[in-house]
Amino acid sequence: MSDEATVRCAVRPGSYHDSVVLMQLQRALSALPGVLDAGVMMATPANRELLAASGLLPEEEMAAGPHDLLIAVKAESAAAAGEALARVDALLQLRRGAAGGGEQDFRPRSLASAFKLLPTARWVLISVPGRHAAGIAEEALDHDRNVFLYSDNVPVEREAALKRKARERGLLVLGPDCGTAIVGGIGLGFANRVRQGAIGLVGASGTGLQAIASQIHALGGGISQAIGTGGRDLSAEIGGITAIQALDLLRRDPETRTIVLVSKPPAPEVAARLLGLARSAGKPVVVYFLGAPLPARRLGDLHFAASLSEAAEMAVEWNNVGEGLVPSRAGASPAPTFMSGISGSLRGLFSGGTLAYETHLGLSAFLAPGRFKIVDLGADEFTVGRLHPMIDQDLRLRRLRHEAADRQVGLILLDVVLGEGAHADPAGELGPAIAEVRARRPDLDVAAVVIGTDEDPQDLAQQIETLERAGARVFRTVGELVDHAVRRLAAAEEAPGAPVPLEAIRGPVAAVNAGLESFYDSLVAQGAAAVQVEWKPPAGGDDKLAGILARMKGRS
Amino acid sequence: MSDEATVRCAVRPGSYHDSVVLMQLQRALSALPGVLDAGVMMATPANRELLAASGLLPEEEMAAGPHDLLIAVKAESAAAAGEALARVDALLQLRRGAAGGGEQDFRPRSLASAFKLLPTARWVLISVPGRHAAGIAEEALDHDRNVFLYSDNVPVEREAALKRKARERGLLVLGPDCGTAIVGGIGLGFANRVRQGAIGLVGASGTGLQAIASQIHALGGGISQAIGTGGRDLSAEIGGITAIQALDLLRRDPETRTIVLVSKPPAPEVAARLLGLARSAGKPVVVYFLGAPLPARRLGDLHFAASLSEAAEMAVEWNNVGEGLVPSRAGASPAPTFMSGISGSLRGLFSGGTLAYETHLGLSAFLAPGRFKIVDLGADEFTVGRLHPMIDQDLRLRRLRHEAADRQVGLILLDVVLGEGAHADPAGELGPAIAEVRARRPDLDVAAVVIGTDEDPQDLAQQIETLERAGARVFRTVGELVDHAVRRLAAAEEAPGAPVPLEAIRGPVAAVNAGLESFYDSLVAQGAAAVQVEWKPPAGGDDKLAGILARMKGRS
What we know:
The structure is a homodimer of 556-residue chains. Chain A has 556 residues and is of the alpha/beta class. Chain A has three domains: 6-98, Gyrase A, domain 2; 111-322, Rossmann fold (3-Layer(aba) Sandwich); 345-489, Rossmann fold (3-Layer(aba) Sandwich). Chain A has helices at residues 19-30, 45-53, 78-86, 88-98, 111-117, 130-142, 156-169, 206-218, 241-252, 268-279, 308-322, 353-364, 394-404, 426-440, 460-469, 478-489, 517-525, 543-552, and strands at residues 6-12, 35-42, 69-75, 123-126, 146-149, 173-174, 180-183, 186-189, 196-204, 223-228, 258-263, 285-289, 298-299, 302-304, 345-350, 372-376, 409-417, 445-451, 473-475, 510-514, 529-533. In chain A, the strands form four sheets. An eight-stranded mixed beta sheet of chain A has the order 8-7-10-9-11-12-14-13, sandwiched between helices. Chain A has a five-stranded parallel beta sheet with strand order 6-5-4-20-21, with helices on both faces. The two termini of chain A are 53 Å apart. The interface between A and B is large, with 104 and 104 residues.
């Protein structure tokens, strides 16, 4: 790089250009004689930093805001830089004229006319800049079309409003910031070409869906549908509206026999609702919440994965089990038990801290926080001057009677830890107390996990029998105890709103595309019917003027 | 219960009694004529609540602090209550005389004389009240003995001081609040009777160790050692001193062929150190951190479990694999690769948000936060007016050159996502840039994860070949990419301090017990040599007087 390298910049205030056009302009400038490097970006703080890091920001202050276009050229001489900048407008004209979409002769300028051209279009793909995207999405919903909203930088309130509207009408809004979907065998946005099959994916995670779908393909499995929801869908603000619709859709889709749900960690209440819905899907559901602790390995037909690739492996395995291709390694899926649900709350009276903690973790994934309370009676606060509850159960027996007297309590969980050092006959004390409270309240469910071996001094089999005879259900692992509690307490969830018709995800696919032409090209290459809308921002991207125009139209 | 039931209370200020004695007193009072219920507790706020809940707290205010003993009696009449309370002192005398330890004729009153009685004792079990426990533990260390410290309510600073002293001398302090250990085939504290075997456990979780050990036994496996560390050991304050010693000990123990590490979520820096040590154990290590997200399913010889019962299953499975009893389901343990370690830091330049996130999660478990940085170039902040990095790699190519120019950076991670909608030839752009930076810096390691299928338009095999020819290592899952990075960057950890001699955990076991007599009885029942110390609190539990006595002895 020459020492005399000169950097010069031009600003186009409030100017809108397609990002493809900007990329092409940057490349064209870089290729001009004497030009060493070029940068063409909207003048956001992040982009300014980038230009600076590449030595493309001149030292004088540039009067450019985040909606202004910044064009920077580093050249061998001031003259070469000046000549390059002088050609910007000509290059922009050139590039715009040369843009793709060659197969389509007439380009409608509005969604309404696009739908006239392609009335079977059930989907609208939107990848225009974020501040314009929500308006187009709303228009699509008003035309009763599903939306694939690739654009990011859409405010969360707009997202919530769009999704509520879509839910009322039985439509889907995938996104904003949704990168990936596969519906009716056609990839929308970024999507790998995969075998058609029986595994349906739902994900608030674009590359997560791609990684899982690709690996399912590599493992010999196939994809029925892949429904991206946008990264914010499982936040408390949005409440998982799209994920719930998608899960409900795949539950009803006869082509989907196994479901995978993937997301960055959802808001706890959203996770609980989704898992409640997944539990009642009647199909195996593999769940991977990135960065969240696993509530269990498996609860009924729910399987929790610890990585993208494990989610793919588990989906293929359980789908093969479901199709009878291979026997289950982990035992057959337990037949759904139709126990009457309990409407009351849950109390856990534990002597083991870790057992209490693991039980709490498992329940937290499925139950609202107010619904259950797990007490560790071996915690420091309870053991000042008192024997540990594994030796002296007086406190636990008192609490058991106390909790059972509360009609709001429907289920009590206990742990019984045998072995050296522990009480010589814990079941002998607990059993009569359990029988006593259950005699007063036959509706009260009491369940216990027993930790011990057949060599322990207390006689494991005898301890279990005593508890069972008193009316307690006995399990041998915390996972089984939690599964029991969740089955008794968690109601099967129903998706609210109008159900999305299965036609939304069935082929043949027809779609209208507003934004990135490469998405249009990709639709056509995959054999879908598509129309590209010649979208331009209102008033050429001038927000002030656009506001005036909108007010004149009475749309504030 | 009669309406005329009367509640009366007595207070014994600053009075110390063994908790077994208190339990026995409560039972004796409850059995007296006319008595309906009785409570005998130290007057802590939690215990006062409990008494109130049982209707055992009189309405008048009781002048009793947390170190005072509260004796409450509910009786049919005031007379019966009064008679019961009048018998408290007699009952206390009676109970104390009747306490167990029948086999031992002479009871030493100090550790020093206990060691004279049983010089082979390598262990001291301490279960006296927390405020007295640390002093006895320190005395045991001064006598070069390992400590099993069952007592809770020991201040964290005392714990840290004890453990640092122990580490210097090659001794173990299990606890405070350590419920469980099995050393040399003998259970200390609470412990299940299990088959001797090849699986060694380390745990900051008493019932966690019991649950895992019991299930390993049920699955046909056996336990070599189980070393509890106390619940606070893996906190930032303690730094996992005992867990690190224990892991190092089991690594050297020829009888232990598979290790299980269980804990509530450790402080991140402690987890990273423990995992670093575990990676270099040369044996399979199953890790279960309750409530923490799994960094992966498996990294080399590390296996991450999602529940207590899964930890047991994995330990038995991998131990069977190690012993050649069964073939590995998940592929053989990869041969350790002795690549030269990289001392620099790591940069990830990602186009996929989920791939970036999963990579970050995996690395976080092993590397200090300052050691690596993963950038998601597809995040909102980078895409204003610019194409997504899956379409336009200009930004990533710039960052790649920029990071490579920094000599502190030793490893760069990339993702390459193929498929519909994505760049037509990402490797064709990345390859030359990788080759260019590696030509300047042959020491720089570049690794990429490629997501895609053999049906994708970019030609998967060709993309991989192009990247590999440019000098990048290519992986197909994030897990493999993270494994590679951790192998290159994380140094094998060495346990600091003096190594604990293997004799500490070898039989025959001899131990001195101060506190709960049931622990002494249990030692004897298991065939261990044991001596019960007739421990009494200084000045009969009167803290003021004890302070004066201590100062007179010059121990402040």
